[in-house]
């Protein structure tokens, strides 16, 4: 018998002072059976960092042709491709060929560091690629906020996301590994 996704709901209020974006989003998040709570909560945090009217979760882990999040325009062109994890060079090349901007958030501590050591010299030809690292401590703090139904507030200022709920508050400060463009 195949395992089914676990569904989470989040009402997310965003105040992004860096971009001047202020809005609320009612999110339905499907946690894939192979996805950890930490990764799912990171998807929500990254959504808050890049939120816009047309930002959407995709099938992500369930589909090799889609990122974790994307922003498409009215012509169905991908403006932002947002990926979590440590993809191979082929996947990054594909993402950069399909989207105007590509954002990658690595996580996982030592495994992410090893991945970056192998990729650092290979990503120089991708001029619209941005790579950030998230610490394992931050992931653990994000997981502590998780509930099946969440009321979350996100404040973004000076590149740091403060994600809070009645369970506490977490500062998410992505460390830039590569790239230079703004959100």
From TrEMBL:
Family matches, as Pfam families: YaeQ
Lineage: superkingdom: Bacteria
SMART domains, sorted: YaeQ (SM01322)
PANTHER family: SUCROSE PHOSPHORYLASE (PTHR38784)
Entry protein name: YaeQ family protein
Organism (species): Vogesella indigofera (Pseudomonas indigofera)
């Amino acid at each position: 018998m195949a395992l089914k996704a676990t569904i989470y709901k989040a009402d997310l209020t965003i105040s992004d002072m860096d971009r001047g974006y202020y809005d609320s989003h009612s999110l339905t998040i499907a946690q894939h059976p192979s996805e950890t709570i930490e990764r799912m909560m990171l998807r929500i945090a990254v959504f808050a960092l890049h939120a816009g009217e047309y930002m959407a979760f995709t099938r992500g882990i369930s589909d090799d042709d889609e990122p974790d999040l994307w922003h498409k325009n009215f012509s169905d062109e991908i403006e932002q491709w947002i990926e979590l994890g440590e993809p191979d060079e082929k996947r990054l090349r594909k993402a950069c060929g399909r989207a105007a901007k590509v954002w990658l958030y690595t996580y996982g501590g030592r495994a992410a560091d090893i991945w970056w050591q192998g990729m650092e010299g290979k990503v120089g030809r991708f001029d619209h690629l941005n790579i950030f690292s998230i610490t394992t401590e931050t992931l653990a703090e994000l997981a502590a906020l998780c509930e099946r139904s969440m009321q979350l507030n996100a404040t973004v200022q000076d590149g740091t996301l403060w994600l809070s709920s009645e369970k506490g508050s977490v500062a998410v400060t992505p460390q830039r590994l590569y790239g230079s463009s703004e959100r």
